[in-house]
């Protein structure tokens, strides 16, 4: 399998992101001024805003529509959707199901189907066909589609969600056609036309392709005394206990970390302040006297740090407070990684092993005794931070490595903490976070 260098999502607009059924008659008559006046009769499908905001952090995002550009731009603006890359009707001579609109979009997004994974989400058979035709242009063939070589019966609309995603692997390079069931085609029609996945709401899609790192649903590996030891890390701290979404203990603090990962501006800013206060407390308690350099963990699809990542705000805030250097570009990966939360322990170790490396582009005295702080959002097993620390110590063997995370995964059923009562006097999360 060729692992993608970059990831992108291309959305159809009408009846995929926005319910524009009320405008269908006017649109077909091309009465565009009247269409614009009736935008208040349109509405976003559930979780569209959250989906766009979430994937804007980790993926490249675009829209391909068979509607004119002024209409598309005004409709996106009306619904406050931040999607700067648009391919519209007049941008290409041929339209879906021809591949030309998708080819125009990937040119604007600066992605290559031979090396990058592109998820194309639409409600029509023409959206699915355009994907397959685009793959053919590059000599690409997907591994398989849902229900390949199987006849789909009349009951397919009522099959469980998991049975509609049999062939889906969003890490596969090329165009990956995904259908939505709330538009103009049924799931049967989408599957028969070659969709490799069908989604019933964007929540399912976010959970399945959840970008991030360190967030897992397995119990932490504990040593006696409930103190988790991380190889190569001298000491580590977490601000809160993180309870996964499938636990009844999943609280407002845990939800705020998910908002942080989604890039919610206010939440990111406040977490940066909170982590900074906690590090100040560590210094007052003489856990360490200084920090020389700060680095961060990379998300699953990153091989080098992307700009404006939520953790950048935390790291920059700490660097200012500690008079330390934030050396974001030092930590890199040889390849994107699968999301660890879906993997068992042995699979995680294989995924992480020998992937991280240090890229010191400036001179550094290897004999110096530096204090280095690794920053991550959620600590689960510690494999990622241990791997980063190992690479740092290979370059700077006399250094002391610390780790701070926003949260540490807790599973009360395995003896872990069951609440965040230690936070009750710090912030009222409903107001502050």
Provide the fold topology.
Layout: E1 7-11, E2 18-19, H1 24-28, H2 32-37, E3 43-44, H3 48-58, E4 60-64, H4 69-78, E5 85-87, H5 100-109, E6 117-122, H6 125-137, E7 174-180, H7 187-192, E8 197-199, H8 202-208, E9 235-242, H9 252-261, H10 265-284, E10 293-296, H11 310-322, E11 325-326, E12 331-333, H12 345-352, E13 356-358, E14 371-379, H13 383-395, E15 400-409, H14 429-432
Parallel strand pairs: 1-4, 1-6, 4-5, 6-7, 7-8, 9-15, 10-11, 10-14, 14-15
Antiparallel strand pairs: 2-3, 12-13
Helix pairs in contact: 3-8, 9-10, 10-11
Structure at a glance:
The chain is of the alpha/beta class. It has 14 helices and 15 strands.
Write a structural description.
With 433 residues, the protein is an alpha/beta fold. It folds into two domains: 7-208, 3-Layer(aba) Sandwich (Rossmann fold), CATH 3.40.50; 235-432, Rossmann fold (3-Layer(aba) Sandwich), CATH 3.40.50. It has helices at 24-28, 32-37, 48-58, 69-78, 100-109, 125-137, 187-192, 202-208, 252-261, 265-284, 310-322, 345-352, 383-395, 429-432, and strands at 7-11, 18-19, 43-44, 60-64, 85-87, 117-122, 174-180, 197-199, 235-242, 293-296, 325-326, 331-333, 356-358, 371-379, 400-409. Helix 4 (69-78) links the parallel strand 4 (60-64) and strand 5 (85-87). Helix 3 (48-58) runs parallel beside helix 8. The two termini are 41 Å apart. Residues 144-168, 210-226 and 427-433 have low confidence and may be disordered.
């Amino acid at each position: 399998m060729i692992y993608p260098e970059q990831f992108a999502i291309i959305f159809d607009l009408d009846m995929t992101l926005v319910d524009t059924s009320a405008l269908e008659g006017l649109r077909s008559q091309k009465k565009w001024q009247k269409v614009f006046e009736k935008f208040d009769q349109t509405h976003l499908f559930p979780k569209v805003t959250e989906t766009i905001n979430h994937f804007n952090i980790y993926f490249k995002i675009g829209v391909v529509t068979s509607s004119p550009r002024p209409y598309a731009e005004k409709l996106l603006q009306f619904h406050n959707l931040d999607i700067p890359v648009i391919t519209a009707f007049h941008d290409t001579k041929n339209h879906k199901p021809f591949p030309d609109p998708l080819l125009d979009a990937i040119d604007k997004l600066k992605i290559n189907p031979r090396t990058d994974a592109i998820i194309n989400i639409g409600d029509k058979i023409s959206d699915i066909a355009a994907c397959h035709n685009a793959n053919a242009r590059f000599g690409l063939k997907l591994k398989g589609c849902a229900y390949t070589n199987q006849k789909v019966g009349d009951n397919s609309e009522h099959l469980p969600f998991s049975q509609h995603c049999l062939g889906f692997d969003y890490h596969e390079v090329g165009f990956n056609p995904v259908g939505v069931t709330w538009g103009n085609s049924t799931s049967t029609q989408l599957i028969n036309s070659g969709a490799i996945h069908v989604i019933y709401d964007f929540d399912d899609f976010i959970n399945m392709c959840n970008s991030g790192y360190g967030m897992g649903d397995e119990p932490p590996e504990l040593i006696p005394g409930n103190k988790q030891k991380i190889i190569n890390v001298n000491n580590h701290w977490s601000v809160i206990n993180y309870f996964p979404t499938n636990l009844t203990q999943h609280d407002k603090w845990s939800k705020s970390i998910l908002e942080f990962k989604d890039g919610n501006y206010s939440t990111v800013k406040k977490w940066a302040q909170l982590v900074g206060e906690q590090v100040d407390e560590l210094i007052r308690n003489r856990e360490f006297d200084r920090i020389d350099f700060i680095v961060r963990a990379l998300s699953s699809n990153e091989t080098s740090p992307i700009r404006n990542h939520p953790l950048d705000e935390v790291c920059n805030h700490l660097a200012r407070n500690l008079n330390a250097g934030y050396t974001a570009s030092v930590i890199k990966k040889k390849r994107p990684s699968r999301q660890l939360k879906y993997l068992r322990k042995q699979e995680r170790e294989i995924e992480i092993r020998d992937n991280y490396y240090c890229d010191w582009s400036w001179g550094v005295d290897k004999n110096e005794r530096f204090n280095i702080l690794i920053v991550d959002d959620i600590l689960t097993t510690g494999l990622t931070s241990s791997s980063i620390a190992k690479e740092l110590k290979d370059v700077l063997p006399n250094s002391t490595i610390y780790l701070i995370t926003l949260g540490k995964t807790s599973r009360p059923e395995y003896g872990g903490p069951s609440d965040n009562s230690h936070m009750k006097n710090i912030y009222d999360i409903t107001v502050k976070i």
